[in-house]
Design brief:
Oligomer: single chain
Order of helices and strands: HHHEEEEEEHHEEEEE
Number of domains: 1
Number of helices: 5
Strand order of the largest sheet: 6-5-4-3-2-1-11-10-9-8-7
Strand content: 25-35%
CATH architecture: Clam
Number of strands: 11
Largest sheet: 11 strands, antiparallel
Radius of gyration: 17 Å
Structural class: alpha+beta
Length: 230
């Protein structure tokens, strides 16, 4: 697996097309004000303290035991991809990219596999080596599992920026964007240790239907190009 793809996959567990991987200039993280909550300019959404915002985000994430949603991904260089995300917590997830996708990302409860359909290879990592904890843990506590860097609120969103040092390949920054009324997760941005940035936006979310367990199968007979990270 190319080094650039490995860095992106570990940071975000989402894959990009080959021409996006050729981009040489990484996007840099723009620092956000530390631990500040901006009051909404107008509208009925009440202003929250940083602690209240994190508590409500934890509550929504913790309650979302199953999730199916369409997603749009914007990778480094502006490459767009889309598909469907399925989650069955704890630990099970599938990023299924729309055709002609080359890659697929699946977690089976213990490991995460990045599958390259073109080369017929896959690389596996422990879930704990990736920043999937905010989506796949049995119990979610952003302040405990990560370092909360800032919280910002406006009329359309609440953004919580966290730092995760427990990822393979170095520290990753994540910006989690929630709906200010329901605190449903709408979008996240990951900036990995190399400065590469990718945005994933969720649409048409279903929090009731349990995904088919067969979606989360990792085929142990598929060869790996780099060896498994287990």
């Amino acid at each position: 697996m190319p080094k650039r793809l490995l860095a992106l996959a570990l940071a975000l567990l989402a894959a990009v097309a080959a021409d996006a991987l050729a981009e040489d200039v990484p996007l840099q993280l723009t620092p956000r004000p530390a631990k500040a909550v901006k009051a909404p300019k107008s509208g009925p959404i009440a202003q929250l303290s940083a602690a209240e915002a994190v508590t409500r985000a934890n509550a929504w994430l913790d309650a979302a035991r199953v999730l199916t949603a369409d997603f749009v991904q914007i990778g480094p260089g502006g490459k767009r991809a889309e598909g469907q995300l399925s989650v069955d917590r704890p630990g099970r997830m599938l990023f299924k990219y729309a055709s002609p996708a080359r890659f697929e990302i699946v977690a089976d409860g213990r490991s995460v596999a990045i599958i390259d359909h073109k080369l017929n290879t896959q690389d596996e990592y422990f879930i704990g080596q990736t920043p999937l904890k905010f989506l796949l843990s049995d119990h979610i506590d952003l302040a405990k599992d990560t370092k909360v860097l800032s919280v910002a609120q406006d009329e359309s969103s609440v953004t919580i920026e966290v730092e995760d040092k427990a990822t393979l390949g170095g520290t990753a920054h994540l910006e989690l964007i929630f709906d200010p009324a329901t605190f449903a997760l709408k979008q996240w941005t990951v900036i990995d240790a190399q400065g590469f940035q990718t945005i994933v936006t969720l649409f048409n979310m279903d929090l009731r239907s349990k995904p088919d367990p067969a979606l989360f199968h990792i085929d142990e007979t598929t060869p790996s190009a780099m060896g498994r990270g287990r």
